[in-house]
Amino acid sequence: NVAYTGTATLPSTGGNGVSYSAGTAIASTGVTGLTATLTAGTLANGAGSLTYTITGTPASSGTASFVITFGGQTVTITLTVNSATTVDCSSETGVTKVVCLANAFLATLTTTQQTSVVLTLNLSNAKRWSNLPCALSCRNGLLFSSLTSAQQTAALALIKAAAGTDSGEGYDEFSTIRTADDYLGTTASGYSSGNYVIAFLGTPSTTGKWMLQFGGHHYAQNITYDAGAVTSITPMHEAVEPAGSFTYSGTTYTSPLASEQAAMANMLASFSTAELAAAKTSSTFSDCLMVPGSTTNTFP
What we know:
Number of helices: 7
Strand content: 25-35%
Helix content: 25-40%
Number of strands: 18
């Protein structure tokens, strides 16, 4: 269940110096999911060798066999596939645990998936987030709907460590907001917890600089780590629809942002009339400046 790339070199005798083209992929038997492909080359005069590239993601542990035929000769080569190993991050804490879980998640992905999820840390990629139900068209990374069950479990373990586990906050908010999208998806298209994404800008490390991005409709987290410390948690966006309680798959959920709403109301109630007038803009959405795509990102 881990992507593999390797080469097999087969000795040959009686070569006549003729050139040969790349072969077609030969599927593995026993352990399936791998292919062996002859690399183009030229036979030596006399003794030489042939090179085969073996790629794919083995479906199980055991022995993968390939039946190779060349120049009228047939031989079977084998590759031993080890049992999957589980990375144990339980003893780690803080950013070290986040990096451990990030690498554990990456280990579950194919090479193609890893290329899609680990991107360059630059301003262009950092600005690709949104509060809209636009899936990957406005975000980086991999959709949750494209992940296997094991890959989703590894991704969620990472997000839980990064978001925090206080009751009703952090990971609880993330999970409830995602479930609210499943609720919306029962009546409208484009809404689903599967449309949430995860991405890394830069390579997860306790020494370098990188960003963890995860989110979807009404949720965006962009956490920057540098030299083993959190250096920024912006842009960050949390919202929820519906605003009140909702029931999905027999479970009733309360608003995940109730504490934030109460805190905002208490803050506004503490302002004097003059302070409130100075802080308040007109009541249109065009006054919201800290939004996706903003070129100023300046608070009023």
